[in-house]
Amino acid sequence: MVSFSFPLQWYRGLHARIHSGSSFPLSWLIAPAPADLGFALRTTVAAFIALSLALWMEMDSPQWAAMTTWIVAQNSRGQSVSKAKWRLIGTCIGAVAGIAFLAAFPQEPWLVFPFLAIWAGGCCAIATFLRNFRSYALVLVSFTTTIIVLSAANQPDNVFMIALSRTTYITLGIVCESLLAALFAPRLEHVAQQEMRERLLGALQGACSGVQGLLRNQPDGLLRSRALLGSIPSLADQTEFSEIEMGPHNHAGDHARASLNAVSAFLARGMTLHIHMQAASPVPPDFQHAIDDICTLLTVLPAELQQDAATRARAQIRLYRTRSQQRGIDRLVRFQLLQQQDAPTTQQQRRDLLEGRILESALAKLLMELDLVLEHFIATQIPSKSDHFRFDRHPAKDVLLATNNGIRSAAAICAGGLLWEVTAWPDGSTLAMFVAVTSTRFSSFEDPVHAASGFFRGAVWAAVISFILCFVVLPQQSGIETLLASLFFPMLVGGLALRAPGSIAGTAAAYNNFLPFMVGPANHNRMDELTWFNTTPAVVLGIGLGIWVFRLVLPFDAAAERWRLRRKMVRDLRLMAKGRLTFTSAQWIARSGDRLAQIIRHAGTHPNALVEAYLTGAMSAMTTGLLILRLHNVLSHKLLSADQGQQIVHVLETISHIKGYTQAPALASAHAMQALLPAAMVERNLSQQIDLVRAIGALEVLRHEFTAHAAFMDITQRFHLVDAPERLAA
After folding, report:
1. Which secondary structure element, helix H or strand E, spans residue 496, and what is its range?
2. In the chain, N or C: fewer CB atoms in 10 Å?
3. Phi, psi for residue 474 in degrees, rounded to 5
């Protein structure tokens, strides 16, 4: 009896030794993880089935079926399903649009290309406003239209069959990938729920670590907090794919997004409490004891959640919050008793009690957000059929970025069409086609050159491998079985590379997509040498031209983009202070998190001191916006006197007129504090005193933020770091 235990043990040992050192460059190929190997095998087989069926059905371009299989294959089943759905929708709409374009402009290249460019540019501009694969669907509309128009340019009478053929082999590739993925993805709902759980636990663990650092006044607490804040938008987007895997009529995804948004609010409250503690230093002993207890709780909380003790942890958080509120009430009672004495010796005692109430209020809000995180976390683990909760983030629409993306795409398509018309190259349509594919596919990226660089490398690798296959291997073969055998190893390697970490995944995606096209399998002929030398260079040059246009037309500049984001942040603060822009706290935190994520993406893997200062300034803008909302809320109660309300209105007016470097908001906040503090010390109406304390707490943090970040708020010039070793500006 043959035993397979020794080879299996040997493989596991080899895999462990290779992956124990992360610097090993080809670990993904020599000893791939079982999940990665399964993905590569499954997708390769799906591509072969799609190609075989396309050949059996005598399709004119069977390679597109195999290409589609690789295009829709993603790391998770939810991603694959979402991309397949939106790709099919985009292809169908693009096919209809392609027929309409060619019917509207027959034999009129100098009309069809400008209008095609406008159409594609408009699709790419609108795609910028959408997230995930909804954006991809509009991109598909634009380049499917272009591909059909260019493919049928020399045979316009056959445009309907060309559009129908493209839709058919796209559908065939999607169906083959979906069937095999469903066959080899058992217990999908359970796996998706576990992934969502791990994602939320990771975010909560990072938040607990960051807030604990802030409460203990550790230097890296702020660094950990802003790194996590920048990753929240990406985590929220990934939740959509787990939601698809969990099936319809399940609101776990909405609860997960709400939990992540509460994590952001928890971090923001932690930063506010940190500033209050610095202003009140040294804090009261009982408050410091409470902070120590909460830090201990934050240390053990992630481990408790791993052990399904979320309900018990939530009860403990509520207990700490109740104690904080009780301490605030006790201070209020003592404050009112001292008010009755009205002696000069009680002034400092009353001030200390007032400061303690501000600290307790900030702590209670911090614990309230943490409780909300756990509430939604529990809802993701125990779905209820009667649950109808909905939560959506509604990202801000960047009109300028959308316009730039549309112009880039339109310019690239015009350039490809012009080159085809001028050179009259027989395969110029292929070049123009892949210019359109590249320019539209990456137009919605903030930095399209960086995003498309792996795409170009993948096309070059596909050209090299296809050269070997077309000139050395395939001429010696004559059947589909040997064709598939020849393609098996190159495709399997591409599938493994697609799951490899780092930038190689982008290169592998393009390699897998283009290899079937460059090999060009067909029923009655093969890719001969002359066809290869005409077609393959056209593909590579088309992709290169698409990227080259990105460098020439409105090129991306990270420094200029950061400056633009800074102007938008300050402009939002000014409009919020005027009352012309309204948000809920959750909406403002989500918008601020998106901007933090943008700055982090622009920084690359090695952010410099200037980028670090930008992140600190962006977090300050987020905190400032929350405090502006609080001041508006206090004014809306209409409990303060006219003079007291005017002090707050003056602060908001000062913020709304920020222009250049100024300390005016900080001075106005300090002056308002000096005016409201004596009023709070003698106010006997409980509701008015509570609003006064809320306003004083907000003004205290505003004074700190506008003092520390006045240079960041100056949007009349680039942001300079005077104390940096190198004089940097952005």
Report:
1. helix 480-498
2. N
3. -70, -30
